[in-house]
Amino acid sequence: MRLLLLNPNTSRDITDLITEAARSVAPASVELTSVTADRGVPYIATRAEAVIGAGVALEILAEREGQYDAAIVAAFGDPGLGAARELFSVPIVGMAEAGMLTACMLGGRFAIVTFAEALGPWYRECVAMHRLDARCAGVLTLDNAFRSVGDVQNERADMLVELARRAVEEHGADVVVLAGAPLAGLARKVRDRIEVPIVDCVAAAVLQAVTLATLNPRAPAAGSFKRPMPKESIGLAKPLADWIGHR
Amino acid sequence: MRLLLLNPNTSRDITDLITEAARSVAPASVELTSVTADRGVPYIATRAEAVIGAGVALEILAEREGQYDAAIVAAFGDPGLGAARELFSVPIVGMAEAGMLTACMLGGRFAIVTFAEALGPWYRECVAMHRLDARCAGVLTLDNAFRSVGDVQNERADMLVELARRAVEEHGADVVVLAGAPLAGLARKVRDRIEVPIVDCVAAAVLQAVTLATLNPRAPAAGSFKRPMPKESIGLAKPLADWIGHR
Amino acid sequence: MRLLLLNPNTSRDITDLITEAARSVAPASVELTSVTADRGVPYIATRAEAVIGAGVALEILAEREGQYDAAIVAAFGDPGLGAARELFSVPIVGMAEAGMLTACMLGGRFAIVTFAEALGPWYRECVAMHRLDARCAGVLTLDNAFRSVGDVQNERADMLVELARRAVEEHGADVVVLAGAPLAGLARKVRDRIEVPIVDCVAAAVLQAVTLATLNPRAPAAGSFKRPMPKESIGLAKPLADWIGHR
Amino acid sequence: MRLLLLNPNTSRDITDLITEAARSVAPASVELTSVTADRGVPYIATRAEAVIGAGVALEILAEREGQYDAAIVAAFGDPGLGAARELFSVPIVGMAEAGMLTACMLGGRFAIVTFAEALGPWYRECVAMHRLDARCAGVLTLDNAFRSVGDVQNERADMLVELARRAVEEHGADVVVLAGAPLAGLARKVRDRIEVPIVDCVAAAVLQAVTLATLNPRAPAAGSFKRPMPKESIGLAKPLADWIGHR
Amino acid sequence: MRLLLLNPNTSRDITDLITEAARSVAPASVELTSVTADRGVPYIATRAEAVIGAGVALEILAEREGQYDAAIVAAFGDPGLGAARELFSVPIVGMAEAGMLTACMLGGRFAIVTFAEALGPWYRECVAMHRLDARCAGVLTLDNAFRSVGDVQNERADMLVELARRAVEEHGADVVVLAGAPLAGLARKVRDRIEVPIVDCVAAAVLQAVTLATLNPRAPAAGSFKRPMPKESIGLAKPLADWIGHR
Amino acid sequence: MRLLLLNPNTSRDITDLITEAARSVAPASVELTSVTADRGVPYIATRAEAVIGAGVALEILAEREGQYDAAIVAAFGDPGLGAARELFSVPIVGMAEAGMLTACMLGGRFAIVTFAEALGPWYRECVAMHRLDARCAGVLTLDNAFRSVGDVQNERADMLVELARRAVEEHGADVVVLAGAPLAGLARKVRDRIEVPIVDCVAAAVLQAVTLATLNPRAPAAGSFKRPMPKESIGLAKPLADWIGHR
């Protein structure tokens, strides 16, 4: 099983982090390929950056089309997820969706805990987009600045643990989703310091990608996710233009 | 990884069916144990039978406690799921929840397609219980009688395929969940006759149980699913009474 | 009119308490019979205990079938309510549902106030099950331990009054539902110490049972609550097995 | 117990009809007073007429204040219900609210069945106002003209029975609410011709008024239904102006 | 374009205030007529007063029918709005609806900020009536008494600014709606003291009335807002009775 | 007032169509500038194309920044709307949002009627994104192919009128939104052939842009739409990169 781990950000250290977290849970049979965006922003944190990241994700998926059995869009707000599912025939997994749905199986309501206040609005819209508001106890964010996104999980581990505790005690969360690619791998380290199950989004996404690829669903030929008819375009990255044009 | 596949019904042929479907997707590392209820009804189809099946599921889980790393309650309406999660420390997977959440990752809205009209109301309440109404395009049921629940998937295959097509064309489903333990394994057989991805609930449940057990979440010591304090009881099956009494 | 007051718990002192509260509002024409569960737990406080209590409730209802014109399942989370309505032809009233719907007629949003933190999650799921979230201002619970469930309403009266006040002032409740059989009768005693109407669930349930029995609705022969077809079973209490088997 | 049955319409034959339906279920201890509006329209059927009826209802309630222990606003859309609850200290029951909440205790989802297409929009808004959409299977209306509103229940009985059947078969209703004062008493006559429980709104309203008056809730001194402070006004009916002015 | 600015309250100083606010944004082509209610209360602040104001609004609209191309019901809770839309053929704008919908275009969630605690419940019901709960971050009200409703915006400006800040910081509002006719014109004065966009409801209502009148929609001849059939009535203001009677 | 009418598609004939529709309602004081995307697809009809269009919209807005007082993203699904509002300080109007919110002021529930089946899923997600599901009676689409998107409104006028009628009669719509830039101007032509008010989205968007620009709201310095901090990027169009980098 060939799995594409797609980082729609330009930060290679984040790619390394998520690749390591992915390998730690992927079955031996999984052949994992990681890709870092070569255009865009170092770390997607706002609605506008998500628009950019969504476009980049589609470009990478088109470029590698045929080389993977399932793909993971490894940014928490799932930029371009629906678009990717519509365009490509293999399962596409979003890190946020996978993390939240996995959390649903471990309790009644999950909280999303993350490291930067700026991520709050985008993450809240992501919860609503997936229609999971009734299962979400809250999105809690740290408000202090951090030195480096690649190292934020070490730098802010104690504060994130504290925030997770608040999510449980004050917001009634049964499960905590540690959200954002930069927190990949943290869940395992702080597992015993938080009193409820914690979900690592990268780990969840990898396991869900394996689940979907194993189920081997057919590509839709009907419904709202069937591949659109061929279409001409101007100025798009060539592989994406070719894929959209059915060339 | 030890997986308990718990059939809260008394039909051994259903247990055989789901065991086979489970084995077809379970990784080699999974040690699968199937159990059939020794009290209850042959097949849970109503709210009252779900109450009975829920009690039976808790009894079986208590009896085998310590012998599994994750368990699957293999009846579509997830009888006793929340109760089981609250009582036991390992992941418990519900066939309906697993099927529906897996379907969420394959499209926008799923339809639930099943073989008996009597199942409709209970299944609809199950969708609501999981707060997934906004993702559900409908619950569609056959209305004809069938000869044997153990063979209904062969007897009614064509009609179920037709119903799934209607779910897509008339109800706007992007994914079809073939619901009910008696339909285990059917998805694979009819995969190419339905124009959207189909989810086999047993397969989904097994893969989600593997996902959760791999994530290895801690047992909650806070939140609404922490294990209740010890409590005395009268007249319960001994292993369940002992577990509730922390003995 | 014969009314069955069914305590699905094994505590006889609770049965006495609710019987007294019931008698204080029941019209003279009501012949009231109280039954205490002879198996189960002393007081249902969790999801798992509700599963057990639901089974017990069905057993008692089957055992007494034909001896009552309406029945009340006298535990706040309404264990087995839907199942009971489906199986039996006379009106079945749930204490939580009756309390909440009655409260709806006294204001816009009600708060549920109760004596034990452990009850919170189960009660919140009960609100959702009845689709009354939009009318519920919150579920507020005391967090201190109490000596005896049979005397908790006296022991904790002041704290419950204080909690009810907070429900009004901080949560915007227009009405307070004092929830849980052990609080039966308390509403009358603290009526003038809380600034909004208070609903006693047992009183509400009795009056709603009278209402339904007076309306004398027919048993459904269609819809999702018509009595299921006869079904064989193994190992159930004989009266319940006979009733499910239409014997 | 003194019960005020307030018809906010000007049709005396409707008042007679609802009075008879009320008497048929009211306990002997109830002293029933019926009032017909002396201004307004013969039968409220639209949003604008409901505005007029709401004002008339408040006038009548103010005029009779002190002469009743509970009052029923006997028009299905509950004109002025919230306003009346806010102004007056005794329980006020709305025919629609009472009918719908009573129906909730007899099944999962109710349908509203009525005799005139024009009533549909207003009734649908009434369902939403009470936040009961999730419990409502539909509002079904006859579309033919009728000769007389006072006799419509006889003239259209067969068609209403047919409509109720469609509500069950096509819309999945578990209970049917026969809506509108002109249908008072019809439920009893057609009880055995419809396969699910039917709710007579006047009967339900009377029994709910008895329930609330028996509970004897205090008038709110806090929350959103406490009586407003005294206020001057111009041109209102004197008793209403006096009551609003705390005179 | 002739615009009717209808104050359903009896306070002429409020009419002056809203007229001035209206003129400050109305295009030169708008011919603005203001009307003050000659019966009712000085300022609508409760559900009961809204019932009265709704009736008054319909009377004024009927009296002036044919003299305006669009009308504004200038009280925040939109008394009689649906009724007016149903009766009259030109666009009718509600101050609350216009303010909230305009705010929706300036951010994700709006907060409603107003000057009197008594307005809270009525305003919250207004949000629900328009089905905008998911877009509303909260209704925040001052709790101190004020000297004069006509001057409350000057007297309480600082406290309202502070409340708006809390709406942003604690409730997550992206936009603030300054609600209530007495606050007309305040938004402009405090624009730079609040960190998010502020909506003046009168200004929004005038501009939305211009928008609707420019679109020049036809009067509905179908759907739930088509004009009701002629109806007789008793005791209504003559122009309203004539209009309802199609005379 | 300078208004930017931004067509995120590459079809110049569509730009001409919407420009004409815009001019027909814009006040004389509006200086209208139209821009056609120079990269992307001829007509956005799917989720993936919306991702591309969203990126293009941000590029155009950045390129012209400072040259407009308000902008309209003239594609019905509002690609990039939230992102644009977050990045830029002047009001940004989405054609879908403007059309739907305007429709809300003309009735209870609107239907969206459009010319291509492929648009359905994306439009439905757009309704959900704006949290307007409760106000939407349905999204109805023609299912036949058409010759040219630039002429589809003439070619398919009769079928669209028929579809709008069905929206009213079968789906209970009070208002019809003719959706999609290619239908700009059609509403006026078919106004008298549909029995309820019809909303032209371009006209609505222009008038709402005028409304917002007239209100002159401040750019948010707090809340979820305040401009993000400066950020480096790679490979973006220079004006967008500069704007994101605060250069």
From TrEMBL, chains A, B, C, D, E, F:
Note the Pfam families from the entry.
Asp_Glu_race
What's the family?
Answer: Belongs to the HyuE racemase family.
Could you tell me what this protein is called? Aspartate/glutamate racemase family protein
**Source species:** Fulvimarina uroteuthidis
